[in-house]
Amino acid sequence: MRRSDEAGTARREEILRRATELFLNEGFAGTSMSALAQACGLQKASLYHHVPSKEALFIACVTEGYNRELAALRAIRDDAALTDDDRLRHAMAELYRITVDSPVGRMSPLIAEVSLRFPEAARAFHDGFISQEHGIVGAIIARGLENGSFAPHDHLGIEHLIFGPVVTLALSRRMFASHPALEETYPVARVRDSHTAMVLQLLRAGTAMPDGG
User: Fold this and answer.
1) 165 touches 195 (CB < 8 A)
2) Low-confidence residues of the chain, pLDDT below 70?
3) Where are the domains of the chain?
4) Which three-class secondary structure string do you get for the chain?
5) What is the crossing angle of helices 3-26 and 54-63, to 10°?
6) Handedness of CA 172, 175, 176, 177 (dihedral sign)
7) Cβ distance 61 to 16 under 8 Å?
8) CATH superfamily of the 3-63 domain
9) How far apart are CA 158 and CA 164, in angstroms?
10) CA 162, CA 195: separation in Å to the nearest integer?
């Protein structure tokens, strides 16, 4: 990559990082292009050189910049030195880190808030990130099935069992961020470890397929 291309990529990443923080702090409706330009250290006209609209910038914020998160999950999926159990443990630990602590996870409540009047954002987030996350974890489980480490199970049920509690914990921690007993009521490590143990227990034992499943 040429130096000018690298500089352009770095500049776009910085714009997305600053825009994401402003959207998180002010909400979608409460964030103007003028405020976004100021947060990014640009004139408003210069920001329009990078993105055509606030909507386009929001979509970029929820679809770009998360390659590292997906790459980390793919590395776990492809690590031949791990056992099937440990591969899933590492993947779930990464899911908790991404969903609870990273900007992409912190954007989830905002995406839910704007999805009805701005459905393009939700679709872009799903197709650009969520579906890939699910696909990587699904491949990890499929490998365990092939190796005989996991028993046949209800695929959709396990998928929701894995991702649902992570999202719920992240939303709860954001909703009750000022709660004085936040860490005691919504502890990340304890919930993660208990959740992972239950998922592994079900995968080893297998689960009955629902009628028509």
Assistant:
1) yes
2) 1-8, 65, 207-213
3) 3-63, 67-205
4) CCHHHHHHHHHHHHHHHHHHHHHHHHCCCCCCHHHHHHHCCCCHHHHHHHCCCHHHHHHHHHHCCCHHHHHHHHHHHHCCCCCHHHHHHHHHHHHHHHHHHCHHHHCHHHHHHHCCCCHHHHHHHHHHHHHHHHHHHHHHHHHHHHHCCCCCCCHHHHHHHHHHHHHHHHHHHHHCCCCCCHHHHCCHHHHHHHHHHHHHHHHHHCCCCCCCC
5) 100
6) positive
7) yes
8) Homeodomain-like (1.10.10.60)
9) 10
10) 8
- For 67-205, which CATH superfamily applies? Tetracycline Repressor, domain 2 (1.10.357.10)
Alpha-carbon distance of 199 to 53, in angstroms, equals 42
The pLDDT of residue 208: 63
Structure tokens at 2: 């040429």
Cα distances from 135 to residues 60, 70, 96, 141, in angstroms, run: 21, 11, 16, 10
pLDDT at 129: 87
Tokens in use for 127? Answer: 């197709």
pTM value is 0.82
